[in-house]
Design brief:
The chain is of the alpha/beta class. Strands 1-8-7-6-5-4-3-2 form an eight-stranded parallel β-sheet, sandwiched between helices. Strand 5, helix 7 and strand 6 form a beta-alpha-beta unit. The radius of gyration is 19 Å and the shape is globular.
Length: 272
């Protein structure tokens, strides 16, 4: 297994090399190992995917449970993992700093801090930047490379204010963020405006309603990193629901016809 320093260097290198890369979002150790087996070079956690797997709503999982989840994923794979830490479990910059420090201790190569509160409102601009600065101070003082992503959540809560979103990302860049991310951008124009307004790598979420751009399209726009958030988890839950409803409502079992065999799935995992 690689050391945390090696994983941190590998993650940083992905952001520095030419072109873009996909960083998919597993929700448990099994899905993480499958993604690595498929050749993905880095992974990111999904707060919603984790919550759904625990039978909870997003933003209701405790910090201890999220940190335990991060530790489980980093132990399961030998590629860099970045954590979705929501608003870092508190409004105060000191709390953000403590959360980043604890997260780094789980073996992660990076994490994110966002400007959306647990109640889906947005932090004041100045406080949001202070929170990113507190996270960056911790991240950059660690004895290994640790990549901090700062997220501007306007578009996710229906505030489609591109000017404010860009101003926030620029402030987070100045506060020390290594990667910038505004989930919910869907058009070429929005994405191009963000990419050209900052001088840090930009993450874009794909696989959500409204965005039809391909990986090649996003790469051509200058996007560095493409994630899918909770989409893989939602796809899996959707398939589970369709199968369950078929049994409950029709008494049939045709859903199993297209499934991978037990042997195929079992073979994906290390026997140890």
């Amino acid at each position: 297994m690689k050391t945390q320093h090696q994983l941190g260097e590998a993650f940083r290198a992905l952001h520095q090399r030419p072109g873009a890369f996909i960083i998919p979002n597993p929700w448990d150790a099994g899905t993480a190992r499958i993604l690595v087996a498929l050749g993905f070079e880095a992974l990111a956690t999904t707060s919603a995917g984790l919550a759904f797997s625990m039978g909870k709503r997003d933003n209701t999982v405790s910090r201890d449970d999220v940190l335990a989840h991060c530790a489980a994923l980093t132990a399961a794979v030998d590629v860099p993992v970045s954590a979705d830490l929501g608003d870092c479990f508190g409004s105060e910059p000191q709390t953000v700093a403590e959360t980043v420090r604890l997260a780094a201790a789980t073996g992660l190569a990076g994490c994110s801090v966002e400007d959306m509160k647990g109640d889906y409102s947005i932090y004041d601009h100045a406080l949001a930047a202070e929170r990113v600065r507190a996270a960056a101070d911790v991240a950059h003082a660690l004895p290994f490379p640790f990549t901090l992503t700062a997220r501007a959540e306007n578009f996710l809560v229906g505030r489609r204010d591109l000017d404010d979103t860009i101003k926030r990302l620029q402030a987070y860049q100045e506060a020390g963020a290594d990667v910038l991310y505004a989930p919910g951008l869907t058009t070429r124009e929005e994405i191009a405006a963000v990419v050209t307004a900052v001088d840090r790598p930009v993450n874009v979420i794909a696989g959500i309603a409204g965005i039809t751009l391909t990986f090649a399209d996003l790469e051509a726009l200058g996007v560095k990193r493409v994630s899918v958030g909770s989409t893989l988890a939602r796809v899996a839950i959707s398939a589970f629901l369709r199968a369950s409803r078929e049994m409950r409502e029709h008494g049939t079992f045709t859903f199993g016809e297209g499934a991978l065999s037990f042997r195929e799935i079992n073979a994906m995992f290390d026997p140890t």
